[in-house]
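Action item from last meeting closed. Structure (430 res):
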């Protein structure tokens, strides 16, 4: 496969010197500054791309970052990073440039650099780890976010950007039912890598972590499988680990009005560098699987507010029928119970508030009691963090809270997409 016209970062061709050192830093070796940076033929996936492979490619550059309204892929690798001590503003900028350059290649099905996994010197560690050789792009999207602590952490205004911090980018307030692990929460930066092949998603985070060596380190990460929402009408509604269809009422990519009002930061919002971006909330929600599995079907349906088989609201209709929150049964009781998840989360119960969800199931083995360490890795994008806060507070009386625990959390400002030849977040520093 020949190398398409991948724009190079403004600071230099290909990866910066710091980024190249990061590729080999963990191995304790140093490659010359020019190694693997030149353009040309890439030792990448295969000699020719099939039509199916080409259809699985999403552009990295554009008005908005991909991985938000993109059709939700089947697999996720999410990682939160902290900047290293004594790093400078220039380190942060070069990291974002290097990440953007590598991401623009990997989302096209290419290695992180022109020499890649097998095209460099045999006497030096490869630029690319190589586990994605022979695999297509698999709909890979890579989305970057900036956490509150990047702007003003314990060490103060490390990078001279505190004055440009979005006013709404604050740590989320405490909510009922939380048992948060600080080691699985927060972070200066985040990367969401989604793909239809789990190895492609893992490859992306693995290589971006190597590039960050000496500038940033992973704080925590999460693998996800089996999407729990959809973003296009062509996608079937998936099921979560409680066995219910999830995301039936999600905002869809073709609903421009809903996206503009509920997902994208507008030019009228502050700060201006966030225009076209969004805010990402991540919540790791442990499900008490064994307890749920002993609940009667009728009670499960009352807790969720939907029919388990068809996904229809208990007020009637089909999966996509609007829940009738006023409907009662023959005895005068609400058809959709007052403490059901559907009622409490619905926009009609929250002043019209909507969010765009991109959640994933996770199973991290078993805990010390032999129970599944499993649940939902909830991801949502919204124009303002206040939208999520409103919904989460509304869910304080949710009957489902008996069967779930929020154990991890984070919030990040997601800048708009990068223009060709630039990098994600460039507006923050201009």
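Sequence:
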């Amino acid at each position: 496969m020949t190398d398409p016209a991948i724009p190079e970062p403004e600071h230099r061709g290909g990866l910066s010197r710091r980024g190249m050192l990061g590729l080999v830093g963990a191995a304790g070796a140093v490659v010359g500054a020019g190694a693997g940076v030149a353009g040309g033929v890439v030792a990448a996936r295969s000699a020719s791309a099939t039509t199916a492979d080409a259809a699985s490619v999403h552009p990295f550059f554009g008005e908005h970052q991909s991985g938000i309204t993109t059709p939700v892929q089947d697999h996720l690798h999410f990682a939160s990073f902290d900047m290293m001590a004594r790093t400078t503003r220039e380190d942060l900028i070069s990291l974002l440039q290097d990440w953007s350059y590598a991401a623009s290649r990997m989302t096209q099905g290419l290695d992180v650099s022109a020499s890649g996994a097998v095209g460099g010197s045999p006497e030096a560690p490869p630029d690319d780890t190589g586990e994605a050789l022979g695999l297509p792009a698999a709909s890979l999207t890579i989305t970057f976010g900036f956490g509150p602590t990047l702007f003003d952490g314990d060490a103060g205004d490390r990078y001279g950007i505190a004055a440009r911090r979005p006013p709404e980018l604050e740590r989320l307030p405490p909510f009922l039912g939380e048992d948060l692990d600080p080691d699985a929460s927060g972070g200066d930066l985040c990367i969401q890598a989604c793909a239809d092949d789990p190895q492609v998603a893992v490859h992306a985070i693995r290589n971006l972590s190597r590039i960050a060596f000496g500038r940033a380190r992973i704080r925590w990460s999460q693998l996800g499988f089996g999407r729990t929402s959809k973003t296009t009408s062509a996608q079937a509604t998936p099921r979560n680990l409680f066995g219910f269809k999830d995301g039936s009422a999600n905002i869809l990519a073709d609903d421009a009005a809903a996206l503009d009002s509920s997902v994208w930061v507008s030019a009228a919002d502050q700060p201006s560098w966030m225009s076209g971006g969004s805010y990402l909330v991540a919540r790791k929600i442990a499900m008490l699987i064994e307890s749920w599995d002993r609940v009667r079907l009728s009670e499960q349906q009352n807790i969720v507010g939907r029919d388990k088989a068809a996904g229809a609201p208990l007020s009637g209709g089909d999966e996509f029928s609007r829940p009738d929150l006023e409907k009662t049964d023959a005895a005068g009781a609400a058809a959709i119970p007052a403490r059901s998840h559907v009622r409490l989360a619905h926009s009609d119960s929250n002043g019209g508030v909507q969010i765009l969800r991109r959640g994933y199931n996770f199973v991290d083995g078993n805990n010390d009691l032999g129970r599944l360490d499993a649940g939902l890795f909830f991801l949502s994008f919204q124009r303002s963090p206040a939208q999520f806060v409103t919904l989460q507070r509304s869910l304080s009386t949710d009957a489902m809270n008996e069967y779930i625990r929020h154990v991890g959390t984070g919030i990040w400002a997601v800048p708009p997409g990068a223009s060709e030849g630039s990098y994600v977040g460039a507006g923050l520093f201009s």
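Note appended to the action item: Confidence is low (pLDDT under 50) at residues 1-5, 25-51.
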